[in-house]
Amino acid sequence: MSILKTTFYNSPLNRLFCLFLVPFLVGCEPEYTPKPKGYNRIDLMPAKYRPLTEKHPYKFEYSAYAKILRDSSRLSEPHWINVYYPAHKANVQLTYKALNNDPKTFNSLVEDARKLTSKHQIKAYSIDEAQIKTPNGNTAFVFELSGEVPSQFQFYVSDSTQHFLRGALYFRTATANDSLAPVIEYIKKDVVHLLNTLEWTDMKTGETLGKTKK
Prior knowledge:
4 helices; about 30% helix; globular
């Protein structure tokens, strides 16, 4: 130890100064307070809709803030489309199947739709099912899933004889579902509007088919 250090520590006055200074320095350490968890601000536009103009065996009204994109996946079929929300990176995938008045095909598609929904049971806190009777005579079944699941809202709608349409909501983002809750509810209302305005069309003439008889 240097002479300077030895002289400093051997001095009674300096030792007394250190005893006073150490508690003071420890007491001046800033307390750490964790910041509360925050979410990005989400601005939602008032609901506004426009008609589907592309030629498909169905038509409906969808959000004016969304885009219609062709399904480009490897397994895609004709009339499979996406209702894409650029502002929220959200996507409602729509897959269509013709029934051709075949009850076996209808029952098989219903079973497949329910299996695809039940795959989320591992992560879902709950799956709530509801039935909707649309103004045009169709029957739609909607499934609301809660928890950190890839798809928070799914549905299928059919006239049970000729047409079957299935949809599922997905987000192209890793944001937690808790923070996406306002957007999920917002798009759910858009999907219900889509279902209520859904009409089947004749691909040859482009004309709207009559209401389903029940």
